[in-house]
Each structure stands twice: as C-alpha cells, then as structure tokens.
C-alpha cells in the first residue's frame, strides 16, 4: 500500500467520524507508528486536524463527507462579504475569528479569504493564544465593556482599562508586525443585536497596500462589513461547529493574473 493509498484510507476513517490514532490503525490495518507519522504530515498539510480531545478529524482542506447542506457556507454567506472586503481594501488576508479554549484565552479562525500571495499562510482552524496584537486587544476591549469583572489578566497582552476604553471609542484596533513592522493588521468587533461580542473581523497585509494608517483608512469599511447580518450569523452559527467542518476559501485577487 503506497503513501497515497494509506492517506486515503485514513481519510475514509476520519470522514465517518473522528478517531484516535489507535482506532485509525485498527480500522485500516496500518501499523500504529506509520499512522502517527502519516497523521502528522496530514495535519501539516491541512488534510487532517487534531481536536482538543486528541481525536483526528478531517482538516480545513477537506469538506467533511456526509455534511448536510446547512453545514456548508452558501452563496450569499459571510464568506462573500470577506472576499469583497479583501478586494476593496487590498488586504492579503481577511479573517473571521472566535474565542476558543476553556478559559477563552485563545482564538480560532473560522473563515478566511486569502490573496494569492498569502495562500500558503492559512490559519483556518488553528487555535492561536492571546498575544499583544490588535485581535486580542479587540476581544478584550469589548469583553471589558460587558464584563463587570473586567478583562482577565494576560501577561502577553498587558492592556490597561484606559487602553481598552480608547479602543472601544475608536471602534477598531490596528498594529504592525514582522521584522521591519511592514505587515499591517486592523481588527474590528463583530457584535450581535444585543451588542455582545461574537467574533472579530481582521484584515492584514503589507503596509504598501494598507498604508501607514490602516485603521484610519480602512476602519470604517471594516466596521460596516462586521455589522453585516451574514457575518454575524457566521459567527453565531460557527460557535458550536467542530474545526473539522470549517471551510477554507482561497482565491486570487480580482484583476490579477
């Protein structure tokens, strides 16, 4: 049995339901050590994903077999809003993220639209710990506005109440990263009808595309998209959806060759 045959056998097993490496080995007849190596490679390629309980499930590049139609983003869903936002702002990546983890100290990308040049940097379904960045600052700013206890302390995100209040007044957060701080990021809250935070909408790209003042230039556009009913619904619906059922859309920017 070749490598592709083994990978296909693994996908057949986890396509029916998530499974442990031992269960995959038993179901396929592939040695346990070989399954472990194969699963690691499949996770790296986005063909499989390791869930919080250690079970292996289909990865973001695989649409879960047997999924009903209401589990797949349809035409007119929030993903189209993200694609239009990418084209309007010149961002390399547009992402919709939610909280993740028992202590809400991490976030996970639930939908993304990437420019051709960012196609190799997918974050879909990958839990990312809170850090000192615009996304975390946005999460904490709007959590603080509705949580009497205030924001939980984060050593990597030491924001004061005044800093978070300033972010709320502005409506968005911006930041720069990379070796020469040439990658710009702008984040805006996605709020439900009760003004509760349900997610964060993020655009990122080179400063040459988003400018030296990305929040001032694109913040209003970002907020408009974040308030769209399709984007809010995407966050609300995805709140209980396993990472294995998330879908990735990677497309070239309009007008490129």
From TrEMBL:
UniProt entry keywords in alphabetical sequence: DNA-binding, Transcription, Transcription regulation
Pfam families from the UniProt entry: HTH_IclR
Annotated PROSITE patterns: HTH_ICLR, ICLR_ED
BP GO annotations: negative regulation of DNA-templated transcription
Domain IclR-ED: 41-238
GO molecular function, one term: DNA-binding transcription factor activity
Protein name: IclR family transcriptional regulator
Segments forming domain HTH iclR-type: 1-60
Upper lineage: Bacteria, Bacillati, Actinomycetota, Actinomycetes, Kitasatosporales
InterPro entries membership: GAF-like_dom_sf, HTH_MetabolicPath_Reg, Tscrpt_reg_IclR_C, Tscrpt_reg_IclR_N, WH-like_DNA-bd_sf, WH_DNA-bd_sf
Coiled-coil stretches: none
Organism per entry: Streptomyces sparsogenes DSM 40356
Entries under SUPFAM superfamilies matching the protein: GAF domain-like, Winged helix' DNA-binding domain
